[in-house]
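Researcher: We're teaching a course module on how sequence relates to structure. For the next exercise, students receive a sequence and then see the predicted structure as tokens, so they can try to spot secondary structure elements on their own. Here is the exercise chain.
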Amino acid sequence: MRKYILFGLLFFAAYMAQAQDIIYSRTDSLFITRLLQRHKPGSMPAGELVLAIAQEFIGNKYVAGTLEKGREEPLVINTQEVDCTTLVEQVLAIYATTRDGSNSFQAVCSNLQTIRYRNGVRNGYASRLHYISQWITDSAKQHIIEEIDYGSKGCSRQIDLGFMSSHPASYKPLKEDSTLVKEIEKWEKPLRGSTIFYLPKELLNNSFGELPIKNGDIVALTTNIKGLDVTHMGFAFWENGKLHLLHASSVAGKVIKDNSTLYDYQKNKKSQTGIRVFRVK
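Model: And here is the predicted structure for the students to work with:
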């Protein structure tokens, strides 16, 4: 009898370890499976398909910090509670799965890991692509997205990533484990002094056709805050000839298609300088 009990305990422990490696609820898996069945590749242009998937998240709650589940850094799938980054990541993971002709929840998990972690390898908190410039560089390298050409409308600035390592108390894992600060700083350094290009916010009042932006493009809001590159992100959509943002709004407390134009959203925010725009491949 003891052997059977021991075997049962070992099996349960192994199951729990595997379950903790990927965290999701039945609601999440059903939600994603439904989207995979509903949205098929080739049914519309790629950007429109991305936007259609993103619209399925409208009304879902805005919740920050949903990825902080311990030092082991499990893969977290949470479609019902998102922040601006996890919304974009999960939409892209679902889109990539449909693009590849799959309707598998497991494929979405795999694509999400590829998008969220450096070189697609999940190895602790520091392997997560915390800065949008890191996330963009990695995703472009893996042929997931590409930055659009701003032409003569673009501006440039040098970035000096370092906000996380210089403000560890603002991040729960860094506050609880000071050894992680050095790891984060190691990945901040390669992009320090690099140049980014962006569309200045003064141009965002231009009408459809005057800006090189399409429905479903990923929009990252650039900033002049020391140590940061971007403060927010979402998906572009055009309404009555004006550019708007579909995003997880901390103010609204949920995912919304913002009634304010992106120009109005940014114009009075002194720390926001404009946008970077990325298109799915």
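Model: If you want an answer key for the exercise: The mean pLDDT is 91. The radius of gyration is 20 Å.
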